[in-house]
Amino acid sequence: QVQLVESGGGLVQPGGSLRLSCTSSGSIYSFRAMGWYRQPVEKERELVARITEGGTTTFGDSVKGRFSISANSAMNAVFLQMNDLRPEDTAVYYCTALAADNYWGQGTQVTVSS
User: Fold this and answer.
1) What span, in angstroms and rounded, lies between the C-alpha atoms of 97 and 105?
2) In 3D, which of 31, 28, 26 has the Cα closest to residue 78?
3) Contact 6, 91 (CB under 8 A)
4) Within 13 Å, how many C-alpha atoms sit on residue 88's CB side?
5) Which of 91, 104, 101 is CA-nearest to residue 44?
6) Could you tell me if 71 and 60 are in contact, meaning their C-beta atoms sit under 8 angstroms apart?
7) Is there a contact between 37 and 94 (Cβ–Cβ < 8 Å)?
8) pLDDT tens digits for range 54-108
9) Cβ atoms of residues 58 and 78 within 8 Å
């Protein structure tokens, strides 16, 4: 069993910043890739950012230049630094981790509003 636990979500004003964290526990110590997806209300889940064990990063078009992703050296925790947040960034953010299977966290709400 693998558990991914997200933290760091909350309410922030437009232009503000948040840092999301995701830590893992369970039977897998290290992952091939970790990342973040988000799902706004009544919309489909979309890629936010992803990082591989080799350090390759991928970002969704709407967050490029504003968000950054990092992982710890053990590749079992991932972090998302979100800057210049906009109302359209409001969503539930899900951590994901890839080993032989793909694992998902329960999600953390990010709300950008004045």
Assistant:
1) 9
2) 31
3) no
4) 4
5) 91
6) no
7) yes
8) 999 999 999 999 999 999 999 999 999 999 999 999 999 999 999 999 999 999 9
9) no
CA–CA dist 61, 79 (Å, integer) = 18
Say if CB 26 and CB 46 are below 8 A apart. Answer: no
Residue 112 sits at φ, ψ, to 5 deg, of -110, 110
Q: Taking the CB of residue 55, how many other CB atoms lie within 10 A of it?
A: 9
Interatomic CA distance for residues 27 and 40, integer angstroms = 31
Q: Are the CB atoms for 40 and 90 separated by under 8 Å?
A: yes
**Is the pLDDT at 29 greater than 90, yes or no?**
no
For residue 76, how many other CB atoms are within 10 A of its CB?
20
HEC sequence for 50-63: EEECCCCEEECHHH
DSSP assignment, residue 27? S
- Residue bearing tokens 């760091």: 8
